[in-house]
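Complex record, three chains
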Amino acid sequence: MLEVKNLSVYVQHERDEVQVVQDISFQVPKGKVVGIVGESGSGKSMICTTIIGLFNQSRRVEGDIFYKGELLLNKSKKEMRNLRGKEIALIMQNPMSMFNPMLSIGDHFVETLQAHSDVSKKEARLRALEQVARYRLPGGQVLNKYPHELSGGMLQRIMIAIAVSHEPSLLIADEPTTALDTMTQLLILDELQAYRQNSGASMLIVSHDLGVIARAADELIVMRGGKMVEYGPAALVLHNPLHPYTQALLAVKETGRSLDELVEHYDEPVVEPLVECQPGYWVRQ
Amino acid sequence: MIKRNKRLPLIISSSLVGLLVIMALFEPLLMPNDPYATNIAMKLQGYSAAYPLGTDHLGRCILSRLIAGAKVSLLTTFSILIVTIIISLAVGITAGYIGGLVDTVLMRLCDILLALPNFIFALVIVGTLGGGLFNMFIGIVCVTWVWYARLIRNMVLSLKEAQYVKYAQVTGVSRLNIARVHILPFVFPQILLLKLIGLGSTILLISELSFLGLGVTAPMAEWGMMISDSKTYLLSNPMLMFIPGVMISLTVLIFNWFGDTVRNALDPKTL
Amino acid sequence: MSRFLARRIGSMVLALWGVSLLAFFLIRVIPVDPVEAYFAINQLPASKEAMDAIREEQGLNKPLLSQYANWIWHVLQFDFGKSFGSKSDVANDLIKKLWVTLRISAAALFFVVCISVSIGVLSAVKHSSLFDRLTRTTIFMIASMPSFWLAFILIYVVGLKWGILPLMGWGTWQHMILPSLTLALGLCPYYIRLIRTSIVEQMQQPHVLYARARGLKESVIIRNYLLKGTLPPLLTSLAMSCGILLGGAAVVEVVFTIPGVGRYILVAMEARDYVVLQGFILLIGFFYIVINFAADIVCAMIDPRIRLKGGEQ
């Protein structure tokens, strides 16, 4: 479904160019969920926005991204726009600031539906109602509400409902559960899982929370400082991590401390080459 | 933007302001002629060695009058600056710090004064007082302090909530001392900066009122009035109107630029 | 919304009452006695009897409060009294003159919106480009020019050198172009800057990124995100500018010799005609407050956050 090959991303920082993603390669097979885990600033979000082509001249990209066998980086602006939201949907973090404060939730549904299909406002509104019902959001009320009247968890669930309204075949979720309470986190993960099972879509979930990834992912990528540290089947990586950084990550999870603490304690640079230790399992050794 | 990039514009703009101030302070030394000496025989002359920028309809030296006008404009502007800062600080800090009824009364007064467009308010005050430099000064001060007083009051209100101010209150520091030590030093630079940015518009306001005949009285040299005087000679002597206008624009430009560079140097976010 | 409306109407009524106080007492607080000034200016023999007779006639010897009540009572019936000097009906005169000024101001607002929205949007979309830098330098220079001087330059170039528009006076629509353009030029720098900054700011908002992520068309993003977000500050400023326009009109009316309210009031001030002055303050204040009120209501209709806050600042 999605294949990323030797992706490197550079951003302009004042006068210098900084490499934030270094030579990443991975695949998201059809119907599978791939998780990317790592501390904040490890370049995870950068990968998401690069895949769907949401960046300006201040970002330079090397490598190839294939979607259904087609090169995404070569596509025109218009082609990319047609893909975004329809074929590839993005669920973003900080739902509180992601909605236009001057438009109602219903307006957000309608404009998204109208962006990719030729429907009237009325039809779009009906489809939005169906979608809202399917995700057990509080019906017609929610559509007339404005973003600031709703909680972050509710907005995140609405974001999912909007994202899947065009039945995309690839769903990219960038920190979908951050800053939400545990109950809502579980609800959201269930909703994502349900969509995958019903539609057979692929998913790329990015998080700094191993718990989230452990629940959802089939395959797991561990990132540190823009580099891939370990990449393999989720079950293996989680239960028998090979790289010391992954081990440290898991240890942090056990003790329930925050990942930011880890950044301070774990300061070994990642220099080893990436080796395929068994088929489909890569680690730096 | 890097700090170094901001220093150069700041140096240039402040030296230009300095130049204007020097011109206003040492005006008698710079003037080639007496700006008030009329000489009908020499009226509406072009450029000459004696009159570098020519003469006006009464035969007065234009260059000398421009320089004399600088003094009037800048002196008035700076005195307005100082007086409005004092009034608005006094009212703003009193309202914000004492609060309660005093605050309500002062702020309602501000509301009422702000209900009228600024320029019209100034116009009415100056008009009823009867023109003249001093009355114009009163009129402009009357309208400008209000807005700043409100701003200061809001600043003081948020400062009052700061921990160190609360601590000072608990430990029994007197109100006056808290205002002097904790509030004034914080509020003053911000207001000064805002006023510096607004200097250009004060100069414009002075020239506009003078143009309407409500500012400086007759023989005194003022740029706005010089333009007003030259109205009738637009056809024959457009330069008469052009030169003082350039002078006003340049002065305002320099002050606006100065305000901008000061703000940019202090606050990197605005760029 | 209804709570917001109620609060806003309440504060408007309060402001209107405040303006009436201002209009009435300003003339009386100022240490110039209108009757004395009137005699002095019109060079009438200032005998005590003659002055007292005028005071009697105008009701100026009654207690202030009863004067105020009497004045308000008449104002509510739209009777602003008779001019001190010419004895003509003030309400009638003011409305007639204000109509002229309003037409110039409206044309100026039209120019302001057209010029600054197009240049501001272009400047923001292509920000840091040559066009953007050129615009910023130009508006910085225009912002430094006094309006009356700009007016003379326009008269000189467009009227005298090119001869395509009438220089001065009032009558046809051609007479309106230069004055309103002068007023507009004075405001454009501010508005171009406002629109440019607002749109550049909007473009960096995360919700615009999310809109792009959903594949919205660029035209929808400009309309529903960038322009819509700019509308509330723009409307509020435009309402404030109505005040600046009415005031600035005085200068422009003098330059172009237009029989508007600004020139009328300058004449009245010359004559210390306090009846006209207080009527003028009241009318302009009323107008200004109502316009600001309308702008606030429209903003609240566009932006739900304003409604929720209930009109607090």
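Note: Residues 223 and 248 of chain B are 7 Å apart (CA to CA).
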